[in-house]
Amino acid sequence: HEVLSAEHLVALFKNETTHDTVVIDFYGPNCPYCVQIAPLYERLAQEYHEFATFLKINAQRLPSLAEGVQGLPTFLFLCRAEPMGQLPGADAKALIETTHSAIKKCMEAKTTLEEAEKKLPELCPASEKFQHNVDFYGGTIEEGVSRVASKEACCGVCTIIPQCAGYTFKPGQDSSSESGSSQQQQQQQGTCYPKSAVANKVPTDPAMGIVSGTITDAQREEAVQALNAKAGGGQSGGQRSGARRPSLSQDLPSATCSFEKDVDFSSHDLPSGTIRRKDRQACCDYCAAADDCKGFTFMESTSAEDLEGYCFLKSSDVGRRDADPRMRITSGVVVTTSSPAGGAPVASGQNGAPAQSIGSEL
Asked: For residue 134, what pLDDT is reported?
């Protein structure tokens, strides 16, 4: 879409058809590099239309929308209207890789937050002490920024993000209407800013209602134990359900899985079931060692710096759909697991039933 004005841009972001991931191409009609990269950008917009919204802004005609843009072309990547980063220049390979990475990161952040949305206040440790009228300046984990209803929910957001050391919650607008439109309800929600560092404390105007807090590893464990106890489980070690899951750093026995390339198990995500793994086999091994995992979807990394992909654990393989080959997605189910002591492989299947066949391994 070509953005025609500031009002048009706002309308596009409010449109329900706009994806969580938005890419904006800041260009100029007389810029030769912009003309050079334009066909690739159009192709990416067509190939990734199910995953992201692609916009174009003429920086020379709408300079007010291009503040902070140092040169043309520049590509801006956003996740739920929050900036994820910029890519200046007409580097075709970098544009492809950065676009893929932005879509992947925004999808992962959404999955993590959606699965905990209803339990966010419960995830806040009972020992947490809120710091009123304090803003932790800098260190924002951009992909974790989200709209939540309370400071307790913001605390819960930080709890489920491993690298989060603290958070700042900024309340939304008040509204006297309890049943108003979805836009009014969104305005009532505040914005949660998870932080990787909390050293810079800035006092704020009490009228703004800003609240901050910190989360330690001990408090995370406290929240995990409290939720497990409520669920009837007694396990710890990072899970937020009663099911047993191995440590992310644990060496796991090799398992045999039936893989399906370019297939996405699009539903049945497990709570706190998004983890980082180096490849699909490592995702398979982890699923086999987790009591509540019946299938998985693995999304490869395309970044030379970030070698780990995303492993989405599933309670079922039902809800499959074809995936764009460029997303490098593979799904699978566990067929056999090897005994940790080196014994004979143990067959497994849905709900613990014996596996019928190994199937095709692509």
From this structure: 95
90-101: per-residue pLDDT in tens? 999 899 989 988
Would you state the pLDDT for residue 147? 84
Return the residue matching tokens 């980082």.
Answer: 276
Six token digits for residue 23: 């890419």
Nearest residue to 130 (alpha-carbon basis) of 168, 161, 157: 168
What is the arithmetic mean of pLDDT over 141-149?
Answer: 83
User: Side-chain half-sphere of 129: how many Cα atoms within 13 Å?
Assistant: 0
Token pair 């009490």 is found at 206
5-9, 241-245, 329-333: which has the minimum mean pLDDT? 241-245
Global pTM value: 0.41
